[in-house]
Amino acid sequence: MPILRSIFIALSTNSSLRQFMENSTLGVRMSSRFVAGKTVEDALTAAAAVNRHGMSCSLDSLGENVHSPQEARQAADVYHRLLDAIEQRHLDANVSVKLTQMGMDLDPQLAFSLAEGLVEHAAAANTFVRLDMEGSDYTQATIDMVSKLHTGNENRGRVGVVIQAYLYRSQADVDRLLAEKIRVRLCKGAYQEPASLAFPEKADVDKNFVRLMQCLLPSGVYHGIATHDEQMIEATRRFAKERGIAADEFEFQMLYGVRRDLQKSLVASGYRVRVYIPFGTDWYPYFMRRLAERPANLFFIARNFFRN
Ligand code: FDA
Predict the structure, then answer these.
(1) Are 264 and 123 contained in the same domain?
(2) Residue 204: how many other CB atoms lie within 10 Å
């Protein structure tokens, strides 16, 4: 399986396959299991449905590594539209943003000012911006930027970041973020990283995930535990129970279309669940990372595809 993971991750950056997939009916139909649709309206419809099932959500306008400041501004505009709609429609939703989509590779200052505009808008709309974590080239810059964004008075508690349990550095990052009372989404990590930076073995990633979860949960800050791994979820539930941490002091987070059974059963047991809802036309890299996590998804999708 690790070989298949590497193949899918390598294919996630293949531009010819990307162009073919994103423009073909076949590709769009395949991706629909994990991607809520192409438009803002599709995302809002999915958000309302998720809310009706007793779960909150985080909306992700798909896209990474934009090529011009104009593209970055357009990407930010989509998020402003989402924030307006979240407020107007009273959705239980926030947004997840990638810094490379805000132009980080072109001009970090531009990325900062676009992200700052979004955090200020989110604060005014009584919601929240999560900066997703990308590959390790961006870890330090993303954490530094969140820290800077969080210092604005109105922005406190309105912006948070993601920590990847596969990185060796994550314990130190968690210590820093907790000292600054910044909200963290803890996940395992979805990118291809060298053994010099990340645990190559799943067992070690899992151990680190549990260790980091145990630092986050008692911190008094509201964090997200993002995983579909039942062992990680069970470890979190057990730890919270032992420490007397109430079910509304943290949330589980899962991806749209992944383990919907588990999402529902957690809600039924009284836990908070947030569903990460991606949408947009640039779905290819996101979709390929989901296949990398579970290559069996390809067979699942193909089976459903031919059934329909
Ligand atoms: P793991 O991969 O060990 O899988 C455990 C079990 O979960 C599998 O056996 C299977 O049953 C189920 N499962 C996992 N993935 C599945 C899939 N795609 N389809 C079907 N079943 C699946 N990463 C990152 O680097 N930066 C980020 O910002 C984020 N953000 C983020 C937000 C949210 C809400 C989630 C849930 C995840 C992320 N991730 C992420 C992705 C994360 O790093 C990781 O790649 C995936 O969540 C898969 O890891 P699991 O913890 O689910 O466990």
Answers:
(1) yes
(2) 14
Q: Which domain holds residue 22?
A: 1-35+289-308
Output the residue whose Cα is nearest ligand 1's atom 1: 229
184: helix, strand or coil: strand
Whether pLDDT at 114 is above 60: yes
On whether the CB atoms of residues 61 and 82 are closer than 8 A, the answer is: yes
CA proximity to 158, closest of 129, 121, 116, 125: 129
Q: Supply the pTM of this predicted model.
A: 0.93
Looking at the 3D structure of the chain, how many domains does it have? 2
According to the model, what pLDDT value does residue 186 have? 98
User: Is the CB of 255 within 6 Å of ligand 1?
Assistant: yes
Measured by CA distance, the residue closest to atom 5 of ligand 1 is 229
In sequence order, the β-bridge partners of residue 58 are 94, 276
227 within ligand 1 shell (Cβ under 6 A): yes
User: Do 87 and 136 sit in the same domain of this protein?
Assistant: yes
Tell me if 33 CB under 6 Å of ligand 1. Answer: no
DSSP assignment, residue 122? Answer: H
Whether residue 80 has pLDDT greater than 70: yes
| Active-site residue (options: 130, 185, 272, 274) | 185
